[in-house]
Amino acid sequence: MPTRNPPTVPDTELPLSFRSTFRAPDPQPEPQPEPRPDALPVTASLEVPRRTGEPESSEAERTSEAKPSEPERTVKPEASEPEAPVRKKATGPRHRAEPVRNRRAPGAAFRRTVALGCASAIMGATALGAVAASIADPSTATTVAAGTADAASGATGDSDTIDAPAAQADDGPTVTSALSVAAAPFTGGTQVTVRGEELDQVASVTVGGAPATIVAADEAQVTFAVPAVADTALGTAAEVAFADAAGQPVDVETPTAVVAAGTSVVQPLEGELTGAPEVEVPMAPRTLTLTYTSDPGIDAQLGYVLTYWSSYNSAEYPVLDGYDCANFASQALIARGWAMDGGWYLDRGTGAMSPSWASSTALRDYLLTRTDRAAYLDDSQRSSVKVGDIAQFDWDDSGDRDHTAVVTRVEHTAAGTRVWVGGHTKDADYWDVDAALATGGGSVSYFSIR
Description:
Layout: H1 59-66, H2 108-136, H3 148-152, E1 174-175, E2 183-185, E3 191-197, E4 202-207, E5 210-217, E6 221-225, E7 237-244, E8 251-252, E9 256-260, E10 278-282, E11 288-293, H4 296-308, H5 325-336, H6 355-358, H7 360-369, E12 374-378, E13 390-394, E14 403-413, E15 416-423, E16 428-432, H8 433-440, E17 443-449
Parallel strand pairs: 1-8, 2-11
Antiparallel strand pairs: 1-3, 3-6, 4-5, 4-7, 5-6, 7-11, 9-10, 12-17, 13-14, 13-17, 14-15, 15-16
């Protein structure tokens, strides 16, 4: 039976997909999203399916065809490493559901970069929160998480806090100089100045335990008036002490001597170079002392009273029988150094005298006008009375002064101040004021002689 050949159909009558000249169109790559600036580069290769009848090409060639714009680069492997075999792709057609691009999972380097970035962000937020909290709560402002940067880099420090510097303690007032006057009369009133730091905080001054009056005080210096003491304190060195408002003693700066190390405490001559290291050697603690001395004028006044209290000096002065007390007190003031004036005088040639010279009440009125010479004190101010002052008694509390005397002794005790006087009419060298008031009654007042 003869073989029958199938009828030949011309190419032009076949469907396009069956024609011998048909070639499938090249697959289009999927659109890629725009890369972010902070994203890591990801290398991908575009695989182009091979057309029917086309010779198989290597992976490098297909990559080159997919990226015609990149120049071909050849990387030679290290001599010590064997050349890796080239893996060939399957030659069969791909299913459309298969991925066209080779999307590789991120590598270890990328994961480390992302992890460090996250850690830095967390640590930065923590530090910012700590600073904000310290601003809101001042009590926590002295501690800051200083180890944040070390924690982010994997390092740990020995300390994670910054300690605020300790506040300098206030040393309070300090005396840094010596007394401006080293000796003063026991009768008091001499003004003494010391210099130092924060001396405006000085609230009290004592000399030998007796309170002194602060005349002026500022930050740099303080001036006080020496209190009057008994004549028994003559020649003694009384310690001068200062205290603040709380009663705490004020420091007196201790001097130091600079000497060469390993040598005795000997100061080199000025400008001399010893070549040895110098160290500060503290000297003995310093205390300020004031020596009580006698006042020449008061000494003369007291000497006159103690000489003529019982034997009147009739060769120089008139004697007023029965009321010679003011006359004798005026004579003692002349011995002290006072000069007569128009309100207080005696004419020795004629015996004429002013009322203030011979009358207790007139003498009071004169002294009240001469504040440059005397200051009035009542008996409540007895602690300010000193030797050489004038004492006046009012026996009947009439307001007039009935008797005048000179203070010859003063004692300050825990029970109070005791005063003794000397004079005429009641002839005495040391007459206790309290005993006089107990027998005569009335009251007493004083004039503090300047």
